[in-house]
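Schema walk-through. Below, the input block comes first and the output block second. Nothing else is stored per chain. Lengths vary across the set, and this one has 192 residues.
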Amino acid sequence: MPRSREENDRIRRSTMDNIGTAAMECFLERGYHATSIDDIAKRAGVSKGLLYNYYQGKEGLLAESVRDRVDEISAVMEAASALAKPREQLLRIIDGALSQIAENPKGYRFFLHLQTQPEEDEVLSKYSEILNQEMSRQYEFQSAIFERMQVEDPKLRSLYFSSSLHGIMLLMSIYPDYPIETIKEQLIRDFC
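--- output ---
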């Protein structure tokens, strides 16, 4: 019996996710430039031909990964903006960001590493800039939240909030036994 269109779509998405995860792992272990398509295909357990069927090479994989990350960040911001009260918006940002890291700590480390690449690297700096622009958008959104909360310096408060949140996210991605619930409660007390 032939597969349904939905089943084919599910298999395609699963294969693409598997390849994307393999690419990120290889990029983290070896670096973007030292990783080959062979490395990624081998890690994903697929042929190079199948990989090229889904992606336009290594940079295509990087571009797709960055688009997915930007979409994740945007989804959290959109969910937060749909809420009426500033405190609820901040809670949504905290929950969304920490949930993403809990689901994919290696992915977070990969994107953090990408954001700190030197500008001289033409390929990586292009995608670093995309991520940094999304982070700037997030910062402005958070500044507006703190402004509605009538804090003394909303932009500084947004920077402090982002610094705290990203510090927590980094530690979550490194330490498996990180006391996330305790730290999350403290973050909520400090900012909400």
